[in-house]
Amino acid sequence: MATNLQTSSPVFNSSHKATLAKQIEELGQWFHNIDLLGVPTAPTHFLGDYPNIKWKHLQSAFPQDLDRASVLDVGCNAGFYSIALKRRNAGRVVGLDVDDRYLNQGRFAVRTLGLDIEFQKSSVYQVDQVTGQYDWVLFLGLFYHLRYPLLALDKVVTKIKPGGRLVFQTMLRGSKNEHSTQEDYDFWHEEIFADADFPCTYFIEKSYSNDQTNWFIPNRSGAEAMLRSSGLEIIDHPESETWVCEPKAVKRDGNYILDMELDGSL
Q: How confident is the model over 56-60, as a mean pLDDT?
């Protein structure tokens, strides 16, 4: 099934749909299943109606009316979430990705749906160079594909407006339990690392799920600990792999944690 995001566009007849289906196919394999005027872009996705199956659980984290709030969608793929938020009256919406196939798919999707969404080719490692800050920053389904994930998170944090929010999603493996860490641990206190709930990430040396870009997969407490370490306060946990955060301590003495780490002053 295709995503249930609604569109006010007119219903196409069978000839129009056949033409549209061919255009969709010509853009290559889609990872986002988006309903384009009644034609799904990825109807046989191995995860089902993806990412609508995620959206059903996390959509409550966003206002029904975004009241022209700005959105930055980092690692946007074909733009499912950008489209979803634009339909909730977001203002400027910018999607970033490094894959030309996904960017071309996203541009085609929003042209077809008549939506004003910008797509830019940019790595997450260059996100701090993107102009401006945003009310909502999406960092969904990308973290575990990164060889330098915490560097990326620290860079993404710099794009959140004061009072804005980050919506973060990552694959999880291992313990799904919360864990309260101590302020410090003795050097000889090795048994903590045998606790499955202790914050950790699993490193994939070769490949996971036939994907060589799966590098670091955290457990739940590991994901939450890294969010806090980047100066974020977790305010919502709408589904098992997704957190909504606000920037609370992303700067020290006026400097971002990222800059302090890079210049050795952290």
A: 94
* Model confidence pTM above 0.90: yes
Length of the chain: 266
37: closest CA among 1, 4, 5, 11? 11
**Under a CB-based contact definition with an 8 Å cutoff, are residues 233 and 164 in contact?**
no
Q: Tokens representing 139?
A: 């960092």
Give the CATH class of 123-263. Answer: alpha beta
Q: What angle is formed at CA 216 by the lines to CA 212 and CA 221, rounded to 5 degrees?
A: 150
Sheet containing strand 160-169, edge to edge, reads: 118-121, 93-97, 71-74, 134-140, 160-169, 242-247, 232-239
Contact 83, 105 (CB under 8 A): no
Contact 262, 158 (CB under 8 A): no
Tens of pLDDT, residue by residue over 105-159, are: 999 999 999 999 999 999 999 999 999 999 999 999 999 999 999 999 999 999 9
| pLDDT the model gives residue 7 | 44
Look at phi and psi of residue 86 and say left if phi exceeds 0, alpha if psi is from -120 to 50, else beta.
alpha
Mean of the per-residue pLDDT values for the chain? Answer: 94
The ranges assigned to domains in the chain are 123-263
The sign one gets for the Cα dihedral 152, 245, 7, 67 is negative
pLDDT at residue 208 tops 90: yes
Nearest to 168 by CA among 116, 119, 220: 220
Closest CA to 128 of 145, 153, 164, 148: 153
